[in-house]
Structures
1.
Amino acid sequence: MDFRAVLRKIKEDERYKKAKSVAVQLPEGMKRGIADITSEFVGKELIFVGDPFWGACDIPQSGNWDLLIQFGHSPIPNLGSFSNVIFEEIQESLDFDIEPEKIPFKTLVLTSNVTYSNQLPIIKNKLEERGIRVVLKKGDNRVFYPGQILGCNISTARGIEDSVLFVGEGMFHPLGIALGLPEKKVLAFNPKTGEYTDMEETKRKFLGQRYGAIDLASRAKKFGIIVSTKIGQTRYSLARVAFKLLQEAGKSPFIITLDLVREEELMNFPAEVYVNTSCPRVTVEDYGSFSRPVISFYELQMALGLKDKSRYIFDEIVMTDEIGSSSFRKWD
Ligand code: SF4
């Protein structure tokens, strides 16, 4: 990816031309490279957003600038439009080409994270040339590109096909697919290393951890319910339902609102278990960083005996609260 070319393209955007002050939001891995930005965006007041972020669900709602440029993520359509935000996805090419003979499926749904969604039509053609039937389609209104998966939304992977191929790095996205669609076979292809991973084993290990947390929650009394203040993660309505269910079960719940969900912010609250209504990454990837169990809303229902434990339900975000978007949004 030619980052300088990306920056030059942004400079042609009318919103950039009009802005006097420009805020830049970068994924952690790109923060060291700000020299390219400072040397290209000359003549603007530049403000780098220091807080970490993991998705377009996180658009800072306070700050004093004319334009925000968010790198690394595509917009989330159902959050509405943000005229003063440029979403610059930073899409990559494949370091390793897909090898059709390593795909053990006759029919599959093709998915990726945003980084490789530009490569999916090429991969589709290559697989189809070898006789594999490939479905490449768009999911619900939380995702932008055909084939794109979010860690909180796997709608793209749904369908009658019994197999899913995920293209991208890391296990967070394909694990979400494997958990959310347990009847399907899920294979993850990492285009940086050329590795293929059958997600069955990872899924089994993860479920062992989740059922352990559900078991602990079923015996706990005090519950902290986490609500994110990030515009695309806010689910007060879900938190209120959790609160009511816990009260009806004779437990002691309380609601905590947070921007960044970390152990440091939670450790002084008197909860035995946390119910997470923010990004599923907190429950899935960050679980080990908390001193007390963190469970999802659906896991809470299992812990309270309100849902059958035999079919695990993955916590997807389809819609966030209106209260989250209308009360915080500044730009339309
Ligand atoms: S809520 Fe989490 S998984 Fe969903 S877009 Fe935001 S950071 Fe990504």
2.
Amino acid sequence: MKFNYIQNTPLYSALSEIGKRIFLPDGIFYWSGRAKNEAELIGTLGAAYGYEKDFIEGGNSDWLPCYLKEITDFSKLSVKEIIPYTSIGGLLETRKIWKEWIIKKSQYNQKDDSLLHRLEKYITTPIITGGVTNGIFQACSMFLDASDYIIVPNKRWGNYDNIIYKFIGAKTQSFEFFKDSEMNIKGLKTAIEKIAKIQEKVVLLLNFPNNPTGYVPTKEEASNLVEMLKESQITHKKPIIVLVDDAYEPYVYKDNVLNRSIFYDLHQLDENVIPIKLDGITKELLIYGGRVGFITIGLKPSWIIDDTELQNLKEEIHNKLEGFIRATISNCNSFYQVLVHKLFEENGFEQIIKSREEVYRLLKIRYETINSELRKINNPNISIDPNSGGFFVFINLNSTKIKAREFADHLLKEYRVGIIPIEKLDENINGVRIAYCSIDLSKIPELVKRIDLALKDF
Ligand SMILES: Cc1ncc(COP(=O)(O)O)c(C=O)c1O
């Protein structure tokens, strides 16, 4: 495959060596496609098929993927749907419905006609990954070589480091996430200035609601952040790739904060601030083990001159992402891809949102309760990070008095409370993450009381 269109975009100059090299060759798919149209006898597909009656007692004459009869005891879905491989980039119906879901999540309405049109037209059809983690891994691999830096907040999900350092061998430029209880946009700007001097691209990873803090920017902070990224791109004239980890997207509990992904505001910019949306069914649809995630790339109208070019550009991008999938996981779990499609198609988005509302309410009241209980602790050695969403709160501990790991150990042994310590003194982090998402409301006051008591032991 030739990559004439992508080569003319700033996306290409930002790609890593792998990103430039990877593609999905025609191979089996080319010959299978041709065989479907041209052959009388087809022996292209590496999956066993037969007449059902030849492998299932009492089966019929349908030509089906061979399956074990016990499987049908566990699912109402047809074996035709759940047994075969999906296409490498994922089931087209699921990809298309997730794109509609992304459009729905933008909250644009009829009045936002031009924004809606831009969103529909200038994003790729999501490619299906093995959960959000696999999407993050792919996106990082696409843009980072071993010598490259990615900008990340000091408070971030620990698995990023496994992907960035341990797997890819790339480096992080971290910035202090908060300054005076607000997002440290100035610190991020300084990190961008530094990286723009030494790299031809800037790659940045953002995650709101954030793990481990639960932070979501206020609407004002979000608009300052977007403005700063825009200005930085204009100043440095290098593409800014923003990986947007939206794992906790729907769980926002306050009114004055950004209540949708920052992807949308970044996508509206004409400048080459290029957002890549990484979301999935894990938390959003509460199917943790389903392992279905999505990568969606925000394109800029200035990159192409007409619809044909746009189509070709999207195909090239899809081909590269599919090349990645093929070389790593080959394709994703078909059962859950079918399930996602059916969930949405047979219920409609509104019904799914309504069903999730119950869980949202449960989490919101826990969020309010844990914050109000934590506020009651009167101890100069702790501070709580600003939080408005997600599944967690983060308590900073005064590192001269209390070491996070020691505290977690003490809390567990003496008070039988389990939380996650994060101690990275080189990045100025010493604190504990509480996953209130997994604690019943009635137990939260007791949990906080025990934390308060344990703090007094130091
Ligand atoms: C910030 C963040 N991103 C991504 C993920 C991973 O999502 P998935 O389970 O879909 O790989 C998590 C899960 O804990 C997370 O906290």
